[in-house]
Amino acid sequence: MSVLSHLQERASDAVLTEREKLSIDRSIGNLQQKLDAYFDQDLSKHFRFGSTTRGTNLPRSLDEFADVDYMIVFSDSDKSPQTYLDRLRRFVEANYPRSAVRQDHPTIVLELSHIKFDLVPAVESWWSGLQIPDKGGAWQSTDPSAFNRQLTDRNSQCDNQLKPAIRLIKCWNANNDYVFDSYMLEKWIVGNLYWGCSNLRDYVFEIFGDMSPQGGSARDRDRVARAQQRVKAIRALEAASDFSRAEQEVSRLIP
Predict the structure, then answer these.
(1) 3-state secondary structure the chain
(2) What is the fold, at CATH topology level, of the domain defined by 18-142?
(3) Which pLDDT score is estimated for 112?
């Protein structure tokens, strides 16, 4: 197996199975029914967003913090963010009494046996659009579909290699105690430049080469440096036609 084929195989493994997708869809259908019944006319809409709608999420077997982002837009908009978070907490406690629930500002986290939901309250106005709570307890504007469109366009420009590359980098990130915030990592990868990249190996190695944990801890900097050193070693082994050892090194980079 070559370096490229190893990465392609691991990227394929990092996709949700049809069984996992079906389980998530069933849970979302159940959540939607409960939301409509509990809040009645108090909601204007609610929908899934985030990495599960972009195809860049990982199975929980590869990322213990993998979740489904779900936005609940309330009909009124004159309350504080905490008021809406409290409403969602009461909804979860009433409808999922046996499940774990906690506030992880600015979301309410619902942990079921097979999946974790991040429930995000939102309000909407004609002049500022959708707003969600920020980490300071105030409102911030958001467009949950904007990044999806940007990623779709960039993935197309990169011969559909960017999404599998993102999944592989997120696997590395999860294996290294989350050096980077998952969403910010995706945004950085999408905004990066990829000169001369033609396959998945090229994109993954380019991402590692440009990686820099600015403001990160010494531990984070060390883990990025070790990954970059391993990529250099793989390139050198490939140049020397030592493909067997190159494959061994890439399996250590992304098991």
Answers:
(1) CCHHHHHHHHHHHCCCCHHHHHHHHHHHHHHHHHHHHHHHHHEEEEEEECHHHHCCCCCCCCCCCCCEEEEEEECCCCCCHHHHHHHHHHHHHHHCCCCEEEEECCEEEEECCCCEEEEEEEEEECCCEEEEECCCCCEEECCCCHHHHHHHHHHHHCCCCHHHHHHHHHHHHHHCCCCCCHHHHHHHHHHCCCCCCCCHHHHHHHHHHHCCCCCCCHHHHHHHHHHHHHHHHHHHHHHCCCHHHHHHHHHHHCC
(2) Beta Polymerase; domain 2 (3.30.460)
(3) 86
